[in-house]
Design goal:
It is a single chain. This protein has 9 helices and 2 strands. The chain has one domain. It is globular, with a radius of gyration of 19 Å. Helices cover 76% and strands 3% of the residues. The chain has a two-stranded antiparallel ribbon.
Length: 202
């Protein structure tokens, strides 16, 4: 009898967790689908590798110049995405800060959750700052820092949809880098803003 009850509880919890996660995936996807952010990220990642692999300085500069246009477009689109996501219902845009994924945890334990809207807003500012390049980063350094900004933003997306642990695992699997390494590689302004955001949720 006890085993049957435990099995029923486990199956019920798993079903509720999938339902909660599916709702989050659909909400985030519905907003992202209005933009070309993912395609632009792929284009930039491939472009950076192409630029770094070019032996001829003139050809390499041509690639960097083209990528600057792509960077600007991505920044503009992500600013628009963050503004659109900010209009979503507050209860549906919370991120659970619990160490394990529990169904609808942000609703039952709101004190153990973070606001994804403010996280995406700070990502938008961070991406825009790197693209504007007021500090005069070299094309190589700008590409490195912007890649970290985008990876951290992607981590937040996965964290929102699943859990922080899953997001970190996907970051390591897809980009061969850890969450801590990415956080250290973004711009100082993003790192400070993100650390303050995370600290408020602890």
């Amino acid at each position: 009898m006890e085993l049957t009850i435990l099995l029923a509880f486990a199956l019920g919890t798993s079903w509720l967790k999938r339902r909660d996660q599916q709702h989050r995936i659909q909400l985030l996807g519905s907003v992202l689908s209005r933009f070309d952010i993912e395609k632009l990220m792929e284009s930039l990642t491939d472009g950076y590798l192409r630029a770094l692999g070019e032996d001829e300085p003139e050809r390499r500069q041509q690639v960097w110049s083209y990528l600057e246009t792509q960077e600007t477009l991505l920044s503009e689109q992500f600013v628009a995405f963050a503004a659109e996501f900010a209009t979503q219902d507050a209860a549906s845009t919370r991120i659970s800060t619990l160490p394990v994924a529990l169904p609808f945890a942000t609703r039952w334990l709101p004190h153990a959750s973070a606001d994804a809207r403010s996280a995406f807003a700070l990502h938008a500012r961070g991406i825009a700052e790197v693209v504007a390049n007021a500090t005069g980063r070299s094309p190589r350094d700008r590409a490195y820092t912007l890649s970290a900004e985008l990876f951290l933003m992607q981590h937040t997306c996965h964290w929102y949809c699943r859990s922080k642990a899953t997001a970190s695992a996907r970051l390591l699997g897809r980009h061969k880098t850890t969450y801590e390494q990415v956080l250290q590689s973004v711009s100082p302004a993003t790192r400070d803003a993100y650390s303050r955001w995370a600290a408020r949720q602890a």
